[in-house]
Write a structure and sequence with these properties.
- The complex is a heterodimer.
- Chain A is of the alpha+beta class.
- Chain A contains 15 helices and 21 strands.
- The radius of gyration of chain A is 23 Å and the shape is globular.
- In chain B, a hairpin with a 2-residue loop joins strand 3 and strand 4.
- In chain B, helix 2 packs parallel to helix 5, helix 3 (143-152) packs antiparallel against helix 5 and helix 5 (177-188) runs antiparallel to helix 6 (196-204).
- The longest helix of chain B is centred in the C-terminal third of the chain and has 21 residues, at 228-248.
- The chains are: A alpha+beta, B alpha+beta.
- Chains A and B meet through helix 1, helix 3, helix 4, strand 13 and helix 9 of A and helix 1, helix 2 and helix 3 of B.
């Protein structure tokens, strides 16, 4: 019997979790990443990971976690999938604990829990304010062990360019490029898992790392993979606006008692507490972001007339803050210059996370056989809005599903023949030709300037408030940017560590993905979760209690949009409100 | 605008690992809170030198831009630090950027730090769990010990401490402060300590803790304020104890 040979693209929490599961099942992994996997974007997650540990005397249940997640997602998430995730969460925490994650502990040495948005019970396990970093490191360490044992071969500083299918249309390999030597190679596999993270960089400034460009997702979409619910982009209410990126100020600030306010009639106005008395500052992110937008843009009450409001921790004892939120308070001091222990922080909403992504079934199969997707790059678990601290959970959990499922593919007859030498050679040559064409581009546009314009356009039309007329304009603008892409000039003609040429390739994929976000938002004439249209202010379950499916049309470069039923059999949709306590189950 | 305030950069560049370094100078428009990565991004948008010569964008490594990933470490005005967290207002001009030459240069400011990740293999930088499946609940931990573990676990393998250490380089095999101190982290863990002897023995070998010259440079440059010298001293004691134990157990 031949070895089970799986390719994992992306070494964040989900890719590493899948890798571990594959190795434990005796498979071999080729692990591709833009960077040493220890530097993946999962480490930017700060506040914690949700799991019903029920150690705070609140009779918390996994069902309550399940219900909060579905309700928080405005009933657009696949309920069987979410239920599985919530039930597994406590086991995952125990696994991370055994692996040595330095979780914050109570005085008696057990894992502490904190509050998070959209949940009434303390359910968020955390390691200070760097939970993502600590979870990622634990899996990075375990994968290093498997690397020493010879079951993992890392391809760090390699960029995935596309998948290769066999005659039956089964994904049996990938093409990737070494980011230093620029050599392009094709690799065979029994199955491929994409765990490439979110598309935040399409919006230019956001809370994401520079590597979160959605390029890999866009590439497989252009090869036939369906994208689900792409219009649902999470805007995090509390970020530090910056010229290079918006830096996240964790929801844990509010979880630990932080209050959001601005001046009205010369006095502090704690508007979230006024508008949403039942949840106050702990309303979910879409609600908080819209409220801040409303206060600043519609009411003109931002600090000094600018788009800023206060996030205030200064009433909380400094020692407590240090223990619970240490890392991020230093970050604020470092990048802004003020000490949040003494003066209120100034924050504004920012693009943060994509609920949508590659459509997958509950086993994380895409519509392309033997191509799986897990982590933020898939569309599962979060519906129309993600609850804070559910992303680390979905990333890790999805890896525990996609890994074993990839093994199942490798043992199945369905995958058919491995790629022929001719198929491998052709796929490689196509990528080489494409790259050489990019290096030869001699137009007048600068790729980074063009990217800046793409970000401005997407931020203007596809974020907190969506208006159909503006979305139509946006789509027109995206076509113009795609046209101008052809007129890019590449100043770096080198075949060694040519970041500019690689960026040009990524940029085209970003523009194509932007069209998917824009068109899906244009077509969904309702308001649900993070997708808010003043023209259609209500949720419309009759028409839109459905997953948006986008497929690529190579003629128009735009997506074809259709709608697909999904599993909402366990919890009947009910109105979603946070001004009063969450109603019945 | 002729009178626009600019920031002057002098950047040490190198086209390939074997080619000769050279410098290029750039003027980047000033804005409040400008950091070094944001300035390099401006150069990407307009790769033109101070003298108006067209050039290629500067190559460097970055990801998170919030001092958590460790990617953008470089030598700025002579000191190893994270470019994203270096605000131009806080340092003197002209600002000199150079690659951290303790490591092989790939291109311009981009370096090859794979040696650090290799060292993490050598010190067995993981807890030996049976598997990711459900076993027992992990033991409870003294919250004070857990707090120390949390501090050390912030190490982002950026390499500042190796760049600053006089004993890391071609003259020595020293694996450097960061990977060495990671062994202390795993020895603190209630399960990780089962392999404490293995880790201490690894540190007795060539390039281990005896190569530390106690220069104290590492703790000065650690961007995460990890008390590296404290833990190196503790490890040194642990290694000595282990060495004695090895002699008596022979």
């Amino acid at each position: 019997m031949s070895k089970k040979n799986i390719i994992v693209v992306g070494g964040g929490l989900s890719g590493l979790m899948a890798t571990i599961k594959i190795c434990e099942a005796g498979g071999e992994v080729k692990l591709f990443s833009y960077c040493p996997v220890k530097r993946s974007h999962s480490l930017c997650a700060q506040g914690g990971i949700n799991a019903c540990m029920n150690t705070k005397g609140q009779n918390d249940t996994t069902w309550e976690h399940f219900d909060d997640t579905v309700y928080g997602g405005d009933f657009l998430a696949d309920q069987t999938a979410v239920k599985g995730m919530c039930e597994t969460a406590p086991k995952l925490i125990k696994m991370f604990d055994r692996m040595g994650v330095p979780f914050t502990r109570t005085a008696e040495g057990v894992l502490d829990l904190r509050n998070f948005g959209g949940q009434k019970n303390k359910r968020t396990v955390f390691a200070g304010s760097t939970t993502g970093q600590q979870l990622l490191y634990a899996l990075d360490e375990q994968v290093r062990k498997w690397e020493v044992k010879g079951l993992v071969k890392k391809y760090e500083f390699w960029e995935f360019t596309n998948i290769i299918k066999n005659d039956k249309g089964v994904c049996r390999g990938i093409v990737a490029q070494n980011m230093n030597s620029m050599e392009i190679e094709a690799f065979r596999a029994d199955a491929v898992i994409l765990a490439t993270g979110g598309p935040g960089v399409i919006f230019g400034r956001c809370t994401a790392s520079t590597i979160c460009n959605g390029s890999a997702v866009s590439a497989v979409y252009q090869q036939g993979a369906e994208i689900g619910n792409s219009e649902f982009i999470q805007i995090h209410p509390t970020a530090i606006p910056g010229s290079d990126k918006n830096r996240l100020m964790s929801e844990a600030c509010r979880g630990e008692g932080g209050r959001v306010w601005t001046y009205r009639d010369g006095k502090p106005w704690y508007f979230l507490e006024t508008m949403y008395p039942a949840y106050g500052n702990l309303v979910p992110r879409d609600i908080a972001a819209r409220a801040i937008y409303d206060v600043c843009v519609n009411q003109g009450l931002g600090i000094n007339g600018e788009n800023r409001v206060y996030l205030d921790l200064s009433h909380i004892p400094a020692e407590y803050l240090e223990r619970k939120l240490g890392g991020i308070l230093e970050m604020y001091s470092e990048f802004v210059g003020d000490d949040p222990r003494k003066v209120p922080m100034q924050i504004y909403p920012s693009v943060h996370y994509s609920m949508g992504g590659i459509w997958v079934d509950t086993k994380h199969n895409t519509n392309i056989p033997a191509l799986l997707a897990s982590g933020e790059c898939d569309y599962q678990y979060h519906g129309a809005n993600r609850l804070g601290a559910n992303s680390l959970l979905s990333a890790a959990y999805s890896g525990t599903i996609s890994g074993p499922e990839a093994i199942r593919w490798s043992e199945s007859d369905e995958i058919g023949e491995e790629l022929t030498d001719a198929q491998v050679a052709a796929a490689k040559q196509a990528a080489v030709d494409e790259f050489e064409k990019i290096i030869d581009m001699n137009g007048t546009e600068n790729a980074h300037e063009l990217h800046h314009e793409l970000g401005d356009l997407m931020n203007k039309s596809c974020t907190i408030v969506r208006v159909n007329k503006e979305l139509d304009e946006c789509m027109k603008g995206l076509h113009e940017i795609l046209e101008r892409w052809n007129n890019i000039g590449v100043s770096d003609k080198s075949h060694w560590a040519n970041q500019e040429a690689m960026f040009v390739r990524q940029l085209r994929n970003m523009i194509i993905y932007a069209m998917v976000i824009c068109k899906a938002a244009r077509m969904r004439d309702e308001s649900r979760g993070a997708h808010f249209k003043p023209e259609f202010p209500d949720r419309n379950d009759e028409k839109f209690l459905k997953t948006t499916i986008a497929t690529y049309n190579p003629t128009s470069n735009e997506p074809e949009i259709s709608y697909r039923d999904f599993d909402h059999s366990l919890i009947k949709p009910r109105p979603r409100r946070y001004d009063v306590a969450k109603g019945g189950k | 605008m002729a009178d626009q305030k600019t920031v002057h950069f002098i950047i040490e560049r190198q086209d390939t690992p074997d080619s000769k370094p050279y410098t290029e100078e750039f003027l980047v428009p000033y804005r409040p809170a400008l950091n070094v990565v944001a300035a390099l991004m401006e150069i990407q948008k307009k790769p033109v030198t101070k003298d108006g010569k067209k050039t290629t964008p500067v190559v460097w490594e970055c990801n998170c831009l919030e001092k958590v990933c460790g990617a953008c470490m470089m030598v700025i005005n002579g000191k190893a630090r994270q470019a994203c967290a270096t605000l131009v207002d806080q340092i003197s001009q002209p600002i000199r950027l150079a690659p951290a030459r303790t490591f092989p240069v790939i291109r311009d400011l981009q370096i090859d730090r794979s040696v650090m990740f290799e060292s993490l293999k050598r010190i067995q930088g993981w807890v030996e769990v049976d598997g990711s499946w459900e076993v027992n609940t992990a033991p409870i931990q003294d919250p004070n010990v857990a707090a120390t573990a949390y501090e050390i676990s912030h190490c982002m393998t950026c390499g500042c401490c190796l760049e600053a250490c006089p004993n890391v380089g071609p003259q020595s095999d020293f694996i450097g402060p960061a990977p060495t101190v990671q062994s202390y982290l795993f020895n603190l863990n209630p399960l990780g300590k089962f392999d404490k002897e293995k880790r201490l023995n690894a540190l007795m070998e060539k390039g281990g803790i005896t190569s530390c010259g106690n220069s104290q440079n590492c703790v000065e440059v650690c961007p995460k304020d990890i008390k590296l010298t404290t833990y190196l001293a503790q490890l040194n004691r642990d290694v000595n104890k282990q060495a004695l134990k090895n002699i008596f157990n022979k």
